[in-house]
Amino acid sequence: MKILERFFTKKNQTQALTNPNEIDWNKIDLEKANFILQEGEKLMRTVSANYDSLDNKSALIRTFLATSLTALFGILKFGDASYQWLLIVLISGFCIALAILSLCYKSERFPTIGTSPEELLKAKYNSEDLRFLICGQLQTYSTRIVKAKKINATKGLFINISLAIISLSFLLSFFMLIAERLYRLLIS
Fold first, then answer.
1. In total, how many domains does the chain have?
2. Rounded Cα gap, residues 28 and 135, in angstroms
3. What are phi and psi for residue 175, nearest 5 degrees?
4. Domain extent at residue 176
5. Residue 188 carries which DSSP code?
6. Which among 110, 98, 90 is positioned nearest to 176, based on CA atoms?
7. Nearest to 33 by CA among 138, 126, 157
């Protein structure tokens, strides 16, 4: 996982508003703060929709792999013994792809959209004006969006690797089948 963290921190440098001292909060009035907050909420909803889409894609791939593995094991057990090596190559590739795909679900918890009312009703927020509350929410959204994008990138990477392994398994099986046919043709 450290390799992936290095990959994402070097390639996808996205900065959150982690240092509030870099922003001149006096220049952000209530109207501007509301606008920025609405844009942050829209982006967070989009990133969340992307996460759901990635979840759906990984579920489809898992279903395909589980169904295919069941069929391949059945064919391996009850089918023609002359092509067992072909089935073993496919089964091995599909198992590796399924194992890599399962790493998608070992990632961090996806950040929630919004903040709970009990958090917003704490004394530190009640002592300040609405602009302070909105600016605090801006910082929270900025951090959550960066975290959510990193989670989506990791999940997308694992899905792409799984798809590549599935494709390589099919290609390897196909080329091995062609090689065997050519070999038989040359021998006869």
1. 1
2. 8
3. -65, -35
4. 30-187
5. -
6. 90
7. 138
